[in-house]
Amino acid sequence: MNAFRLSVLASSLISAAAMAQTPTLTNPAISAVLDGFYQNGDRVLGGREEGFGLGESELAISANIDDMFYGKVTTVIEVHDGDTELELEEAFIQTLALPAGFSVRAGRFLSDIGYLNNQHLHTDAFADRPAAYRAFLGGHYFDDGVRLSWVAPTDLYWTFGVEALKGEKLRAADEHGEREFDTVGVYNAFTKIGGDIGDNSSWQLGLALMDNRNGRLTPYEEGEEGHDHGDDAHGHSHSAAYTGEKTYVADVVYKWAPDGNYKYQHLTLSGEFFRVEDFKAAMLHEEDHGEEEHDHEHDTAKDHHQGWYVSGVYQFNPNWSAGLRYGELETEEAHGDHFHAQDLKETELSLNYHHSHFSTVRLQYTRQQGTNFDGLNDDNLITLQYVMTLGAHGAHQF
């Protein structure tokens, strides 16, 4: 079994057992990740801001609780508009010894929707998550709930899982605070399948369907200005800027390394597609207004949001890697009783220096082009970032 097969298996939801063999309650794994940057402009939809700043600096502790359970706590610290924000990102337990490939995780954890979401931000090859993540998942979606997963006893890696989550970060806007939300608002079902291609390559495909009971906009009432789902609506709290009742995600990943030796040289190609449906309240639908009173000037016929990206990252020696990513986002913003179409295109090029596995210095160029986003002009952004890890840190996902 080569290194890529081990990487694929490590991405299963029982991987916590392998990652926590040594750490125990009397000798836990403790780590910190430092993220600092300078950027010459603002990125839309909750991305990094202009000037010097701190990204998500992370403090984590994890250990086997006993032979049945594993636990982890992760806090993140950010500075936004001069205020220091402290947030609990993970606080979960996970089973280690359930039979027949089953596993249960409970508490607060990263949802296993899509490819990037179950990975921490400091593992990314770019300074920010793609626009689709920032728009539909608040950058990365973590929540309180429970997950049941199963790894199939097949030659290929194949896992299925379901999650029931609080869903507060994925609620539609409720400007007047009058709406009664479901306390368990989000249900997610996912599957991932992957395997090897010879000794040099590996692949993985993923599909997910998220049902968001609280994702549809509240009805429009006469005289209201509408619900702003732009960048200012949800600010910097990791909440989604655009929601809907149904979110579909498809992802694909391909990795190559000579003889499976990922350390010295490797290539990673990946892409994801998001589609968010059923976001309009009944009173915002065109058919609920008379022809003579409905404003068609800015309204659009689309009944969904969608976004996608493709990415390639090549590490050409142990110390240097380069990445290229392109993504597009198409959304609908409510204005009174109609919607305005928005679109965003991002082209990103990153150059990364890795003195070791624990340190990265990144220079990134971003070209962002969009329409109907507040405060967005066609910008060329330069980001200089460092990501440094202190202490013991578990293996990264596939």
From TrEMBL:
SUPFAM superfamilies given in the database record: Porins
Give the residue range of the signal peptide: 1-20
Q: Where is the composition biased (Basic and acidic residues)?
A: 226-235
InterPro entries to which the protein is assigned, alphabetical:
Porin_dom_sf
Which keywords does the record carry? Answer: Signal
Instruction: Tell me the segments the record calls region Disordered.
Output: 216-239
What protein is this chain from?
Answer: Zinc-regulated TonB-dependent outer membrane receptor
Q: Native species of this protein?
A: Shewanella jiangmenensis
